Amino acid sequence: MTASSPPTAHLIDGSLYVFRAWHSMPDEFHDVDGHPVNAVHGYTRFLCELLERERPSHLAVAFDASLTTSFRNAIYPAYKANRELPPPDLERQFVQCRAMTEALGIHMMIDHSYEADDLIGSALWSLRGQGFRSVIVSADKDFGQLLGEQDEQWDFARNMRWGPAGVVERLGVRPEQVADFLALCGDAVDNIPGVPGIGAKTAAALLTHFGSLDDLLERIDEVAFLRIRGAATCAAKLREHGESARLYRRLTRIALDAPIMDSIDALVRRRSTDQLESLCEQLRLGPLTRNRLRALNNAENSA
After folding, report:
1. pLDDT 10s digits, 156-213
2. Which of 125, 130, 126 shows the shortest CA–CA distance to 147?
3. Are 260 and 119 in contact (CB under 8 A)?
4. Dihedral angle at the C-alpha atoms of 241, 244, 246, 249, nearest 10 degrees?
5. If you ran DSSP here, which 8-state letter would residue 287 be given?
6. pLDDT-based confidence at 297, cuts 50/70/90?
7. Helices vs. strands in the chain: H and E counts, helices first
8. Contacts 24+ apart (CB under 8 A), 32-40
9. Which of the chain's ends, N or C, has fewer CB atoms near its CB within 10 Å?
């Protein structure tokens, strides 16, 4: 780090990497009680690799607490209604993954009203005000809206990193337009329908021309004259569904006021040897993983 570069905080989308481990790890690992722990093994290896590669000075992992109690469900009951609740075996492993996070002395963020995205966004916003840059460890496109000039998003599995310019390359819109973009074209993953007939290319073209969803809806009469495919139909759809798009933006916009750490010091790793050893026994982790975890725990704050 040079004298002019800001300190870095790593903010990790924990639930994403638990799900990835659940789907990618063979179902051959069991804890002392005979329950499957393939997701925990995969998630633990992910954490080990990240800590070994980056040696982050400040980091936090955010988890989703529920699919049904977010403030967005109160706004729009159909939000994420297309997703099935995790099966009991996976729900149990989520608890164990959170325990592993804490055993490694990593600050954990979780809330029943705010999603992991909101916790990461709120932490990033607070950190930015205190001179930090953030690296968001996730492949989720929604996070593009958070990236400031010095921030990065890191798709760990593909080892791809990008800043604000990468958001434009991927979505065709600037970070500050991402929530409007998703409100217009929808997000099937979260069961947000968007405006009928408006896909990603049209949404990007509209926002490139008008700048924001609000300006687009205020100047809706101009849409029919744009050089975009189906311009007249697009204008009619926007007139009919404009208020719905404003509602969807309340869902796609990441909150910046979620409850987070009281101090930046909370993001500095702590040692927790006893808890770590006990968890290794419970999960029946192999010697290689145990040695990696012990080395990481012993190296914590050694510099």
Report:
1. 999 999 999 999 999 999 999 999 999 999 999 999 999 999 999 999 999 999 999 9
2. 125
3. yes
4. -120
5. H
6. confident
7. 12, 6
8. 32/281, 32/282, 32/284, 35/89, 35/92, 36/89, 36/93, 37/93, 37/96, 37/283, 37/284, 38/93, 39/90, 39/93, 39/94, 39/97, 40/93, 40/96, 40/97, 40/100, 40/283
9. C
What's the CATH superfamily of 8-167+255-299? 5'-nuclease (3.40.50.1010)
Q: Position 159: which residue type?
A: N
Exposure letters 101-133 (e unless 16+ CB within 10 A, then b): bbbbbbbbbbbebbbbbbbbbbbbbbbbeeebb
- Taking the C-alpha atoms of residue 108 and residue 87, their distance in angstroms, rounded to an integer, is 23
CATH superfamily of 175-252: 5' to 3' exonuclease, C-terminal subdomain (1.10.150.20)
DSSP-assigned letter for residue 114: S
Looking at residue 271, its pLDDT comes to: 81
Burial of residue 22, with CB atoms counted within 10 A of its CB: 0-12 exposed, 13-18 middle, 19 or more buried: buried
Cα of 40 vs its chain's centroid, Å: 19
pLDDT tens sequence across 220-252: 999 999 999 889 999 999 999 999 999 999 999
Q: Got the DSSP string for 22-84?
A: HHHS-S--B-TTS-B-HHHHHHHHHHHHHHHHH--SEEEEEEE--SS-SHHHHH-TTTTTTSP
**Which residue is it, tokens 């819109």?**
173
Residue ranges per structural domain of the chain = 8-167+255-299, 175-252
Q: For residues 205 and 228, is the Cβ–Cβ distance under 8 A? A: yes
